[in-house]
Amino acid sequence: MAHVAKRDYYETLGVDRNASDDEIKKAFRKLARQHHPDLQVGDQQKKSAEEKFKEINEAYEVLSDQEKRRRYDMLGHAGAQPGGSGFEGFDFGRGGFGDVFNDIFEDFFGGGGRGRERAERGSDLQYNLELSFEEAVYGKEAKLKIPRWELCQDCKGMGARSAAALKICPSCKGAGQLRFQQGFFSVSRPCNQCEGTGQIITEPCGTCRGRKRVYRERLLSVNIPAGIESGMRLRLANEGEHGLNGGPPGDLYVAISVKPHPVFTRKGNDIVCDVPISFVTAALGGKVEVPTLKGATVIKVPPGTQHDKALRLRGLGIPSLKGHQTGDQILKVKVQIPAKLTAKQKELLTEFAKESGMTMDTDGDGFFDKMKTFFE
């Protein structure tokens, strides 16, 4: 009878020869679920799956052990330890391998052996808070109404009217699990009657009706720090929904969005705004009243100020969240050209053009149009 050569272990698990331990473990878990004999229908399919399952296990037993894998990479199947072709050759207690099988059985049969009344962490919550531009700059104390599931105070989270209303489940005898024989292994699954808690509520709490929690709205004060901006989230630990069976509460996240301001925009920790000035002020200089978040103030415009020139007011920007110095307010100069001129204004500008040696159009309008184009 001809000898049938064994398949390459890497090929059996469908991984590359340079695959990491984690990649090998994931591949084995996937194939073990797919080919587990107890999940097959019909004797022929079960028999075929059993052979495949043994082949997968053999490959994993070698490749999951660093020393065996090293010898296999050097010498092939001859380098692997004998006795690795079936279940009897595996060390299920060896670190990693037994854990994989436990994970697989939990996926199949509902996490047997984990115990009843497992603590469950409460869900995280998110509150979307919209701030004005000024509130984001200077910060505020916000009052938030947070609806959430809270532990029922009447029954202290038992779900029953009293301790006497909690009875041991007759199906699982309080274990929360039912044990079954599944092919090669004895496994457990959660009890359907008590849903894995090990207890039956004979008289539910009148407030929570056996749910152990109640849905309530809570008023919460939140300190919004100065300098916060859109897209940031504040995390308030343990302010989410309450957990079950002694589990910790979740967290509350406050997601920030800032409404746009009609005058100011933000650039980092600086506040930017446009300041319109006349072309005369731009040329000769002068004083201009400008807005700030702390009220109007007067600035000096230097002679010869160009369009889009940035003038800076130190310390009138946004505080840094990291405690560094406050930003500045930046004033972007926008030189305005009047759309209409009187005859006298045209005459004076014409004289200015001649004095400056500028080429003039015959009607005098071209010079001013050029000035408008220059300043736009």
Features:
alpha+beta, Chaperone, DNAj Protein, Chain A, 376 residues, Helix Hairpins, single chain
Question: Please, could you describe this protein's structure?
Answer:
The protein is of the alpha+beta class and 376 residues long. The chain folds into 4 domains: 9-109, DnaJ domain (Helix Hairpins), CATH 1.10.287; 125-258, Heat shock protein DnaJ, cysteine-rich domain (Chaperone, DNAj Protein, Chain A); 261-336, Urease metallochaperone UreE, N-terminal domain (HSP40/DNAj peptide-binding domain, Sandwich); 339-376, no CATH class. Helices cover 27% and strands 25% of the residues. It is built from 9 helices and 15 strands. Strands 10-11-15-14 form a 4-stranded mixed beta sheet. Helix 2 runs antiparallel to helix 3 (43-63) and helix 2 packs across helix 5. The longest helix is centred in the first third of the chain and has 21 residues, at 43-63.
Helices and strands, with pairings:
Blueprint lengths: L8 H5 L7 H15 L7 H21 L2 H10 L21 H13 L15 E7 L1 H6 L1 E12 L14 E3 L8 E6 L2 E6 L8 E3 L11 E12 L8 E4 L15 E7 L6 E3 L2 E9 H6 L1 E5 L6 E5 L8 E4 L15 E8 L6 H13 L9 H11 L1
Parallel strand pairs: 1-9, 11-15
Antiparallel strand pairs: 2-7, 3-6, 4-5, 8-9, 10-11, 12-13, 14-15
Helix pairs in contact: 2-3, 2-5
